[in-house]
Amino acid sequence: MLIGVLVLDLYLPMCNSLKEKRSVVKRLKDKIRNSFNVSVSELDDQDIWRRTQIGVSCISMNGKDANNILSKIVNLVESDGSVEVLDYKISFL
After folding, report:
1. How far apart are CA 84 and CA 93, in angstroms?
2. pLDDT digits over 28-73, tens only?
3. I need a surface site. Which of 7, 11, 14, 54 has the fewest CB within 10 A?
4. What is the pTM of this model?
5. How many Cβ atoms from other residues are within 10 Å of residue 89's Cβ?
6. Into how many domains does the chain fold?
7. Backbone angles phi, psi at 61, to 5 degrees
């Protein structure tokens, strides 16, 4: 069994308050969670309006499947018009 971890550094250009940011981040986390049945959490930059770091984890029997799921999540987030992906890292435990 393998644990795949994805860390996304995101820029939220349309957010002008923490309330707007929370709304965008919650919607994005719910979208990821519902589409892929993975664990999602906001990790860092919680007090900065236009930046956030999201962590995603999944469990798989092999690295190929886990990498496939996490890559699809990156594509989903990149296609979302309300955020920009600044950087992302995929690792396995």
Report:
1. 27
2. 999 999 999 999 999 987 778 899 999 999 999 988 899 999 999 9
3. 14
4. 0.89
5. 10
6. 1
7. -80, -20
What CATH number is associated with residue 40?
3.30.70.1120
Looking up tokens 């594509």 gives 75
Coil, strand or helix at 23: helix
The domain of 58 spans 2-92
The residues, any chain, with a CB within 8 Å of residue 45's CB and separated by 6 or more, are 51, 52, 53
Core vs surface per residue 53-81: b (16+ CB within 10 A) or e? bbebbbebeeeeebbebbeebeeebeeee
Pair of tokens at residue 53: 């770091």
Rounded Cα gap, residues 37 and 31, in angstroms:
10
Length in residues, the chain: 93
Residues contacting residue 11 through CB under 8 Å, at least 6 positions apart: 50, 51, 83, 84, 86
